[in-house]
Every structure is written in structure tokens, then in C-alpha cells.
Amino acid sequence: MVSAIWELPYFKKSSSGLKRNLLGGYTVSVISTSFSGVPLSAFLPDFADLSGTGTFQSYLPGTGEGSIGRQIKTVGQLNALITAYNAKFAGTDDPQGTTLSALALVPPNTPMGGDSLISQDVRLTKTFRFSESMHLDLIGEVFNLFNIANLTGGGNNQVLSVAGTPVSEINTFRPTERTTSVFGTGGPRAFQFAVKFTF
């Protein structure tokens, strides 16, 4: 994250009251935010428990917490692990007696890891000074100026689909919505206006 404030010097000390009050007294501030997508975890469906510890939640063998987007960076790598799992475990029972289902392969072009967040927020302030301590500020703000679709949804823990599920219904690792912060970093482009009087 990078932030900056620039008090524009233009016409600030002009001898013309019209220029000083109309064209001077502006301040621009920006907040640039960028961070990479959050890594995801891949869990087996049907509350499979490969460890036999009673947690009823097991990672896909070959993965661990936050593996998707870190160690596993392509659909091909993930599907190779799914294929190996199906060959070894599908149709067998876990230690708790649950029959393990074969897993569906993840569709091509599925993003590996959460979406990044990029946002540019800008504020423009016009100040009218009446005395040393008394002034009026007119403020205009825009959040996510370039309206970048920062995607989210589904949480960090993703449950793999059972084989036979139609590709159109496999939502694992796919974002489901945009970040919903209306007046804040990362959400859809939004404008905000305010008036502040200081005395």
C-alpha cells in the first residue's frame, strides 16, 4: 500500500483574490493498494477422514494448508494429484468406514489461488480559508478509480467435486462475486462527497 498527499501550490499566494479562492487551495491525496491473491486449500468431499483422527476433514493427498496458489500453481498439477488419488483411494473406505468417492478433474483455466486485489483511491479537497483557524473544505472521493473487478467468494477452504458432476456445476476454486465494499478499497467504483467546516 502506498499513500501520498500533495497540497497544490498553484495560486496559493496570488495577489488576486479571485484566483486565490477559485484556482488555489486544492489538495490531492491518493491511496494505491495491491496485494496478491490468498492461497487456497483443497479438501476431500463427503467428510472423508484419511487420518482416522475424527476430524472428518482431509486435505487432498499431496496438498496441505494454502497449497493451491503456492506449491500447486496450475490446473495440470492439481489434476495430476486428483488422478493419483482416484487410482489409489476411490472406492475404498477411510478409517471411519466412509467410502471414498472418485473426484472430478478441475476444468481448464480455473484460477489457482484467490484473486489479487488492486485498487486506486483518490481524494480531492478544495479549501476556502476565512481566517487562520476557520476554513471550509469541499471533499470529493472516488474508490477503485479504474473499477478493477477484485473477485472473491467461496472462502479459503475449497471442497473438491465428486466425479460425474457436470463441468458447468463445478465451482471449486472459482470466484463467485466481486469484493462488496461499497465505500472502501477494492469494491466497485464508488464516489463520495463531503463538506467539513473547521473553526
Tell me what the structure shows.
It is a single chain. With 199 residues, the protein is mainly beta. The protein has one domain (2-198). It is 11% helix and 29% strand. Strands 1-2-4-5-9 form a five-stranded antiparallel beta sheet, with no helix packed on it. A two-stranded parallel sheet has the order 3-7. Strands 6-8 form a two-stranded antiparallel sheet.
Which keywords apply here?
mainly beta
Secondary structure topology:
Elements: E1 2-7, H1 17-22, E2 26-35, E3 41-43, H2 75-89, E4 117-129, E5 135-143, E6 151-152, E7 157-159, E8 177-178, E9 190-198
Parallel strand pairs: 3-7
Antiparallel strand pairs: 1-2, 2-4, 4-5, 5-9, 6-8
Radius of gyration (CA) equals: 27 Å
Order of helices and strands: EHEEHEEEEEE
Task: State the share of residues found in helices, binned by percent.
Answer: 10-25%
Number of domains: 1
Distance from first to last alpha carbon: 33 Å
Q: What is the overall shape?
A: rod-shaped
Strand content: 25-35%
Number of strands: 9
Question: Which strands sit side by side, in order, in the main sheet?
Answer: 1-2-4-5-9
The number of helical runs is 2
Query: Could you tell me the mean pLDDT?
Result: 88
Structural class: mainly beta
Low-pLDDT runs: none
Major beta sheet summary: 5 strands, antiparallel
Give the gist of this structure.
With about 200 residues, the chain is mostly beta strands. The chain contains two helices and nine strands, in the order E-H-E-E-H-E-E-E-E-E-E.
